[in-house]
Amino acid sequence: MSAPAWLGAMIAGSVLVVAVGARRDPAPQPEPPRPPLESPWLTREAAAEIIAPGGGMGPLFTGAELGGLAPSPEVRARIAEFARVNNIEIDFEISDDEVAAVRFEVAFGGCCGYEAADALALRLHRPRIGGGCFGTERSWIDDWAFATHDGVHGRARVRVNRLTVRWERMATFHELLVRAEGLLGKDRGAVSSAAGDRWKEIDTGRYLLEVPYLFIGSEWFEGYYPASEHGLLVVADRRRIVEVSFSIRGEDLERVPAVFQARWGRPRYRGATRTWRKPGGFFSAKLESNESRTLVTLRTR
Q1: For the segment 141-174, what is each residue's pLDDT rounded down to a tens digit?
Q2: pTM of this prediction?
Q3: Which of 193, 196, 214, 279 is buried deepest, with most CB atoms within 10 A?
């Protein structure tokens, strides 16, 4: 073999070896996808800072008491930093430079976030229905209200892995009655705009206005209960509010008629129903009572 031919064979063989070697080298593999990082659940220590043992506002809110002055910038910054670190939401509702309400919300990630939400809800007196003599399975209530021993009203809600609660100062029965009476004749749109998320449409012309009053205690959650036992049930004719009703249970039952009589005088009786006509004829008030509750209905004439 001539020198050029021999050299050409060597080069060809080298190319072949390189080519074969290149085919045998494994191609670089892409990195496996990393699972998204989940925010850690709220610790027991953090939960205790937010929710007091009785279901009210915990020590985190020192300096931001309900009915007190709006929190200082330092207090707001401290609470905001706590919320950021623990991946929660805390909002203040300020009215006339006072703390009218405090809202807390947390969402738990992962496949079992609903379990964490259910566990935290137990700190807020979450009630159950069912069981008892009927033999039905007991189940949790997802929307409920409660009161603390120091006069704080809480309204809480669970939606799968998300828990929200709003704390407000508990209204007295007199304040509730004044609020209900003051709605009559008002423009529905103006009332709903002022109420924000406290205003909920139930049906055409029928609405629920949440107010910080304990219409129904946890001991009454043993079956179905109408919307009128969670707030003020409002009926509107076009845009004008023509009727407001609510139910009273428990310790307020006995004093309801006395409050009405002191406010509007002697009623007209028809069985268990008592009716008042406000001087001037603007509206009528009616009480319908049985052993467990009194239904109060205020209506424009």
Answers
A1: 888 888 899 999 999 999 999 999 999 999 988 8
A2: 0.77
A3: 214
